[in-house]
Write a structure and sequence with these properties.
156 residues, mainly alpha, elongated, 0% strand
């Protein structure tokens, strides 16, 4: 078990790095949020095949929106941004209090913000994987259509 004094000493050594990382991650995500969401919407959620699948699920009785997963991701991303900034600010405010509870709070906020960012990164990767699978399916179906059209013209 880590003693309160060791925790305080550890935090004193890494307080600046924790501030910089929280501020940098929050700033980067904030600047990229619109681009990420718009690209995901255009490349995946606006795809006719994706929307066809959503219509099928609605016909089966599921209450699901076309953009509900994107809205949820937007909220997750905004939460990660806000928590990263809170983490950064706590390092340069609460982090100077020489009490193990204040230090533990600062470390908890930093770790939790990193976890939230990791979940957001996983979600982006998962969405891109699904978008690429959908693009592959669409391209394959288009290729089959072109080949069948060519074979019909050849047989005439």
């Amino acid at each position: 078990m880590v003693s309160p004094e060791e925790l305080i000493k550890y935090h004193e050594e890494f307080r600046t790095a924790l501030f910089v990382s929280g501020f940098t991650i929050g700033s980067f995500l904030f600047s990229m949020k619109t681009f990420i969401l718009k690209t995901m919407r255009d490349d995946y959620y606006d795809n006719e095949e994706y929307q066809r699948k959503i219509r099928q699920r609605r016909n089966l009785g599921q209450e699901i929106g076309f953009y509900t997963p994107l809205k949820n991701f937007s909220r997750l991303l905004m939460s990660a941004i806000v928590l990263s900034f809170i983490s950064a600010l706590s390092q340069i405010s609460i982090g100077y209090i020489s009490d193990y509870r204040a230090v533990a709070f600062c470390l908890f906020i930093a770790i939790f913000s990193w976890v939230l960012v990791a979940v957001a990164i996983y979600y982006v990767g998962s969405n891109w994987s699904q978008a690429l699978d959908l693009a592959e399916t669409t391209a394959t179906e288009h290729e089959k259509y072109i080949n069948s059209k060519d074979s019909d013209e050849t047989s005439k």
